[in-house]
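Entry for the shared binder. Reason: the reviewer on the internal report wants the predicted structure included alongside the sequence.
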Amino acid sequence: MDIQVAIDEARFTRFHKKLVAACMGGPILDGYILSIIAIALIGISADFNTSALETSLIGASALVGIFLGAVFLGPLTDRIGRQLMYTIDLWVLVIGSVLQFFVQDPTQLIIARFIMGLAIGADYPIANSLLAEWLPRKRRGQMLGVLQVGWFIGAALASLVGYAMFELFGGESWRWMLVSSAFLGAIVLLVRLGTPESPRWLLHHGRTKEAKASLRAALADQLSVEHLVFESEAKPATETGKVNLRVLLQRPYLKRIIFCSGFYTLQVGPLFAIYTFGPTILASFGLGHGNASNLGSVVIDLVFLAGCIPALKLIETWGRRPLIIWCFALMAIPLFILGFAPSAPVGVIIACFCAYALFSGGPSILEWAYPSELFPTNVRASAVGITTAASRIGAALGTFGLPFAIDAWGIGPTMVIAAVVTAAGFFLCLFLAEETRGMTLAQAGGEPTTQPGGEPTAQPGGEPTAQPGGEPTAEEKAPVRETV
């Protein structure tokens, strides 16, 4: 049995559940850290008397850090492995969270949140790649989508904690709001202890003994490991730990990089702006500052989380492509209504934001599934890092630009811009989105492998990676066969 087939066809066990929980901890922290700032900014602005520029930089600094962390640490994860980076980035997040408590001016806070952003940017390719490379085929899309649910859980929790602290202790409690993420980080660190390295990554780097040991440790309870035979697909370039990023500029991966980076950017630009400045936006619609706008932001954050639940089911039953296309279309409509009717009744305003939040569930979970599925193992973390980094350009621009847009043009035109950006995402997905439902990870990523019984797999474009009858292609001849 091929090692990739063994993982793809495995039962979903307690090990997988623990791994999902451990990987989910990163997005929970991410959502919490990036969302708690929305309410904390009220107290920060009062204490430091921040300018519009400083307020924007505080909101966007973590997003800039995510961009750089994803760009540079994604390829590093492909070189040195998922497991080591899996722990380092959590320590940085915990330390950064504590440093926020002691800042004395806006500049120090901007630097602290930038450093935390670097760690968050690292965790995207690390957690995505590690989880995707361990998950069974039939649960892969759903469980990768659960990571995004973790982000919204963290964001909703941040809204609840921030709202409660604001009500109980006032805006001056912002330091305690920000440092609270350190407690979450410590819990995630404990859950991640003992996580094994990805056998796919080990195999691609020629470390077959370690790959077998990792497989035994995780799946020995369901595999006849004494009869397990797999092929070492490690090539000289990967055995030395080199990552050839030029493959991402070749067909079909260049189109996939454009697609994943594009829809991710167009999705999170408006979304992060709404998350970061939710109370400010609602106040601009006439809900008032303080209690009403904060509570309205909490409600909308909870709907963002609720929107992921039906999407997790539809990703495996309806498919990736129709889910992302229809959701983008349905997200644009309420934003256009908000843009052209900014004086609508409060109930209509809240309903439109809730509709946008609900339909965002489809693209949100596919932000984690698509980049992990559409690229091969040796560059998977690099590809996830690139798409994440590209998305953070949009998120940072949206977050940085929103206060200025509201001041210059008003809330109506600002929402029209958000609607146009979302509509652009619809057209991008209409032309470039692929369907990977039911494929093995190797098939979706275009890696050469064979299924049980010698059946050839195919790339998403339909070309088989093995010749009829199970015969290997020229590139797959003379494989090293080993028995566990």
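Summary line for the report: The beta strands are 229-232, 480-483.
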